[in-house]
Design goal:
The chain is α/β, with parallel strands linked by helices and 384 residues long. The chain folds into 2 domains: 261 residues, Alpha-Beta Barrel (TIM Barrel), CATH 3.20.20.105; 94 residues, no CATH class. Helix content is 40%, strand content 20%. The protein is built from 15 helices and 16 strands. The strands form 4 sheets. It has an 8-stranded parallel beta sheet with strand order 4-14-13-12-11-10-6-5. β1 and β2 form a beta hairpin. α7 packs parallel to α8, α9 runs parallel beside α10 and α14 runs antiparallel to α15. The radius of gyration is 20 Å and the shape is globular. It starts with 8 loop residues before the first strand and ends with a helix.
């Protein structure tokens, strides 16, 4: 590990391009993390992070993720707290050893479940009372407990506990959630973590620009290692989501990573990178794979469609993954129609390879000062 790396996270921007508004926007960077075993992790940005909610990216092994060149994967604090329990994971060597993944892990704080399981929880200024979606048991989450759980899991990047307001919501409702998020962030910062763990603050504020600005001002004054933009892609149109991401990104420090949470479609990633975002995650590539929707360089393919029954060609001729180099569209359709387990695996391998490759292409285009040309070509091909 480098002696120059004093904190748990170090970020450097290698190349940044000006946007049409003249502000620094699309950028390529290097993120370094200490690692729980003393090793140093290096992440090249922009980066897409596959979601492994319960300690697994559904349908694929960690070896396959390495083969896809996945750099970071996610775990979820709330779900791992319920099963198998963070204390058990810590006893078994923390999450890296438990799931046999040597690369960096980012854990969500459980804050998103405040939103997604709204019918099973009650929010107050001190925290959230959850009713388990598994057995109905009652659990109390606070900013302090969220930090303790993530500390036990041993993840490399720890998210602050936040409140994501629903969409639509009134200005007063969004303001209340934003202020609560800041208060919870301050409380979470008082909980000691392990030396290798970096902290991310989460910007809220819904679709109200002045609230986003206030949230950014409040949170960037706190000693976080990086910042995330939360509360988007929760029901608003893609155009509104992209507009708010574009507004919020320049409000965040230039010298720290920026993470757009839960986004999204390939075109959302392109526009997020254009806005100046470094890190992304979404269940879309894995969830859609299990439902037979595949992303390719020529746009989406619904593999269950009858027109593919006799299609002997590869899913995506430009994709290097096992699915595309070994199997035909006809075979992939056959597996899906028959409900074969292999369908989910092969589809997931492809979708994740596509997403990870997309980020690599954007990084190269930024470094070569041709991002706008690359993006134009991406849209032309994907709509053909």
């Amino acid at each position: 590990m480098s002696d120059l790396m004093s904190g748990p996270l170090q970020f450097s921007v290698e190349k940044v391009l000006a946007g049409e508004d003249g502000l620094p926007r699309a950028r390529a960077g290097t993120l370094k993390l200490k690692g729980s075993l003393g090793q140093e992790h290096t992440v090249r940005t922009p980066v897409f992070m596959p979601v492994g909610t319960a300690g697994t990216v559904k349908g694929v092994t960690t070896g396959e993720l390495r083969d896809m060149r996945a750099q970071v994967i996610l775990g979820n604090t709330y779900h791992l707290y319920l099963r198998p329990g963070h204390a058990r994971v810590e006893r078994l060597g923390e999450l890296h050893k438990f799931m046999h993944w040597q690369g960096p892990i980012l854990t969500d704080s459980g804050g998103f479940q405040v939103f997604s399981l709204a019918g099973l929880n009650k929010i107050d200024d001190e925290g959230v009372t959850f009713q388990s979606h598994i057995d109905g048991s009652t659990h109390r989450f606070t900013p302090e407990l969220s930090m303790e759980i993530q500390k036990g899991l041993g993840s490399d990047m720890v998210m602050a506990f936040d409140q994501c307001p629903p969409y639509p919501a009134t200005r007063d409702e969004v303001r209340a959630a934003m202020r609560r998020t800041v208060s919870w962030a301050e409380r979470g910062l008082r909980v000691p973590l392990k030396p290798h763990q970096a902290r991310f603050g989460i910007i809220q504020g819904g679709l109200y620009e002045e609230l986003r600005m206030q949230s950014a001002q409040d949170l960037t004054s706190l000693p976080f290692d990086a910042f995330a933009i939360g509360g988007l892609s929760i029901g608003e149109t893609p155009e509104l989501m992209q507009k708010m991401a574009y507004f919020t990104a320049p409000l965040l420090p230039q010298d720290k990573p920026r993470y757009l949470m839960g986004v999204g479609r390939p075109e959302d990633l392109v526009e997020g990178v254009r806005a100046g975002i470094d890190m992304f995650d979404c269940v879309m590539p894995t969830r859609n794979a299990r439902n037979g929707q595949l992303f390719t360089s020529r746009g989406k393919v619904n593999i269950k469609n009858a027109k593919y029954a006799d299609d002997a060609g590869p899913l995506d001729p430009e994709c290097p993954c096992e699915t595309c180099t070994r199997y035909s569209r006809a075979y992939l359709r056959h597996l899906f129609i028959c409900g074969e387990l292999l369908s989910a695996r092969l589809n997931t391998v492809h979708n994740l390879t596509f997403y990870i490759g997309l980020m690599e292409q954007m990084r190269t285009a930024i470094l070569e000062n041709r991002f706008d040309e690359w993006a134009k070509d991406f849209y032309t091909k994907s709509r053909s």
